[in-house]
Automatic annotation (TrEMBL):
<protein>
    <recommendedName>
        <fullName>Ras-related GTP-binding protein A</fullName>
    </recommendedName>
</protein>
<keyword id="KW-0832">Ubl conjugation</keyword>
<keyword id="KW-0963">Cytoplasm</keyword>
<keyword id="KW-1017">Isopeptide bond</keyword>
<dbReference type="GO" id="GO:0010507">
    <property type="term" value="P:negative regulation of autophagy"/>
</dbReference>
<dbReference type="GO" id="GO:1904263">
    <property type="term" value="P:positive regulation of TORC1 signaling"/>
</dbReference>
<dbReference type="InterPro" id="IPR027417">
    <property type="entry name" value="P-loop_NTPase"/>
</dbReference>
<keyword id="KW-0378">Hydrolase</keyword>
<dbReference type="GO" id="GO:0005525">
    <property type="term" value="F:GTP binding"/>
</dbReference>
<dbReference type="GO" id="GO:0012505">
    <property type="term" value="C:endomembrane system"/>
</dbReference>
<keyword id="KW-0547">Nucleotide-binding</keyword>
<comment type="similarity">
    <text>Belongs to the GTR/RAG GTP-binding protein family.</text>
</comment>
<dbReference type="GO" id="GO:0009267">
    <property type="term" value="P:cellular response to starvation"/>
</dbReference>
<dbReference type="GO" id="GO:0005634">
    <property type="term" value="C:nucleus"/>
</dbReference>
<dbReference type="Pfam" id="PF04670">
    <property type="entry name" value="Gtr1_RagA"/>
</dbReference>
<dbReference type="GO" id="GO:0003924">
    <property type="term" value="F:GTPase activity"/>
</dbReference>
<dbReference type="GO" id="GO:0005764">
    <property type="term" value="C:lysosome"/>
</dbReference>
Length: 307
């Protein structure tokens, strides 16, 4: 089951850098050596089971953009499930950026009216921290107004912090079939093991695809922080010719376990009772694998709007 995802925006806005970080295991500083995208770069990313993201990274040079709306219009904008449009927050050509975005929306409305629209206000690290929220809210209001009659969801992002993972996790979550059944099973599993929280990560990208929270947690950005930290640790392991399999973190007030779960996921179980033996939790994780493997196969074989 393939789902077509368009990644668009002006040249230099950061599209290819974020794609490389999320899907190709780049770290932020290494993206500086990436060149500009020429025309359209296609990549197929197997995500959960049979779910494949057919990612079209569209070069943002003016000649290419004009071509997308003219001779390639039907090819580019037909059967799109998701449009991700990236804006450089410090662009000096905002009027032109908005013009191209509006042209994309018109083409989407004509060819894929059911597509979901996401706007990433990118490179927010270049904005003074005390101004970020105000600037983002103003930009979000403009984009939502410009997008009508379509609806868009906006995120502020940077390759230097957890906001990039938060945005892409939210986008991918919208593409997972039968996600409510997955969340229901996670809730049952969390109750059985008496966990405060259970997170489900996609194995390759370590994006959070689902979670169950049974007790309040003060850090609203913990999913993305954990994802970022573990992914960097996995990369460090690979440089030493070692393979990351599992991790346990424990102190006097909590215990957390990260372990391989299904063939496409890792699971993190966090609990506030450190007296529960590690072996008991690991046995419960192992026993739950078969159920989630079966659920994953059912979810990934669900019919898609576009094949």
């Amino acid at each position: 089951m393939k789902k077509k995802v368009l990644l668009m925006g002006k040249s230099g806005s950061g599209k290819t850098s974020m794609r490389s970080i999320i899907f190709a295991n780049y770290i932020a500083r290494d993206t500086r050596r990436l060149g500009a995208t020429i025309d359209v770069e296609h990549s197929h990313v197997r995500f959960l089971g049979n779910l494949v993201l057919n990612l079209w990274d569209c070069g943002g040079q003016e000649a290419f953009m004009e071509n997308y709306f003219a001779s390639q219009r039907d090819n580019i904008f037909r059967n799109v499930e998701v449009l991700i449009y990236v804006f450089d927050v410090e662009s000096r050509e905002m009027e032109k950026d908005m013009h191209y975005y509006q042209s994309c929306l018109e083409a989407i409305l004509q060819n894929s009216p059911e597509a979901r629209i996401f706007c990433l206000v990118h490179k927010m690290d270049l904005v003074a921290e005390e101004q970020r929220e105000e600037i983002f809210r103003a930009r979000e209001e403009d984009l939502k107004g410009l997008s009508k009659p379509l609806e868009c969801t906006c995120f502020r992002t940077s390759i230097w912090d957890e906001t990039l993972y938060k945005a892409w996790s939210s986008i991918v979550y919208k593409l997972i079939p039968n996600v409510k059944a997955l969340e229901s099973s996670l809730k049952q599993f969390a109750a059985i093991v008496d966990a405060d929280e259970v997170l489900l990560f996609e194995r390759a990208t370590f994006l959070v695809v689902s979670h169950c929270q049974r007790r309040q947690h003060r850090d609203a950005h913990r999913f993305e922080k954990v994802s970022n930290i573990v992914k960097q640790f996995k990369l460090s392991c690979s440089k030493l010719a070692a393979q990351f399999q599992s991790m346990e973190v424990r102190n006097s007030v909590f215990a957390a376990f990260i372990d391989g779960f299904t063939s496409n996921t890792y699971v993190m179980v966090e609990m506030s009772d450190p007296k529960i033996p590690s072996e008991a939790t690991l046995i419960n994780i192992r026993n739950a694998r078969k159920h989630f493997e079966k659920l994953e196969k059912v979810s990934s074989s669900a019919p898609s709007q576009y094949q």
